Amino acid sequence: MTFVSRLKALAKKSTATLAAVATAATISVVGAGTASAAGHRDWLRPDATGTCDWDGVQFWVQRCDVWSPANGRNITVQIQPSQRGGNAALYLLDGARAPETYNAWAVDARAMEKFVNNNITLVMPVGGAGTFYTDWAGPQGFLGGPTPKWETFLTQELPAYLQAHFGVNPNNNSIGGLSMGATAAMNLAANHPAKFRQVLSYSGYLTTAVPGAFAIMGLVMWDVAQLNVNNMYGSIMSPRRAELDPYTNLEGLRGKDVYVSAASGIWGPAEIGQPIQGLMVGSALEASANASTRYWEPKARAMGLNVTSNYPLIGIHNWPQWDYQLAITHDRILDVMNAW
């Protein structure tokens, strides 16, 4: 470590210590209207750069840089420790336009407020726009670039970090996501059945290998992050297209609690006053997710999977819909994970 890097690390540790003192002094403000902070929550964990930081979203969320050997870089994760040291976790995956600075579940659905009084660790990875949170076969861009290895990070590297520093059992997890993140959550749960006891798909695309889906995915991925869809699978004819399609990737979901939802695409009170162009796009995306999920569900039931579905009559592809879904599945998550 160079002299300059040592100074940077020391500065971060000093900042983190001051933040911890300030948080402890103002904990009644941070957790206003909630139970007092438990000892499991009120100290900063170590991370790849020294120490995690208190996140601006508050409610004891820590911002941790987790080293990923598979990706060759640190990946930021927003983490709210369980209230009383419980060993269950809820992973929440973002959509196709996942920001590089925060997980939208923390900002747009205030997930940490919903679970602030519960004994479950919230795990909200930051970034991954357009990647479907899988291990890519090649570089993400048409002209090269890094090769994303999100599946390895989420199922091997991050669980090891969470076990070491937050007391999370690597095999005691629930996973949910919206849109792209919902598709990914279903695949991750199916591909790693020992790690996830529950999976929740909010407005997911669960039949990605049907005619036309590949072309649409390619356009979306290029639009959001200039990604090459062929490099995610390996080629247009790669068998990974079927392996990463929730419609054909069902066997690993046996014995799990599975929740799927998608609204009709019809505008409701939450859409009043919104720009018409955004509403049109939101309607089309949600109607597509609805059709995809409804097509997936009969096959899942025929296989004997434990599926609960919810198809609201009103709602489009936006945060009012996903905030609502997280709220109504809150108790379900805690019941399955025994994390009240």
From TrEMBL:
- Record-linked Gene3D superfamilies: alpha/beta hydrolase (3.40.50.1820)
Q: InterPro entries, from UniProt?
A: AB_hydrolase_fold, Esterase-like, Mycobacterial_A85_antigen
Tell me one GO molecular function of this protein.
trehalose O-mycolyltransferase activity
Quote the EC number.
2.3.1.122
Report which superkingdom the organism of origin falls in: Bacteria
Give the record's keywords alphabetically. Acyltransferase, Signal, Transferase
**Broadest EC class?**
transferase
Q: Where is the signal peptide?
A: 1-37
| Protein name (Swiss-Prot/TrEMBL) | Diacylglycerol acyltransferase/mycolyltransferase Ag85C
Biological source species: Corynebacterium gerontici
Originating gene: fbpC1
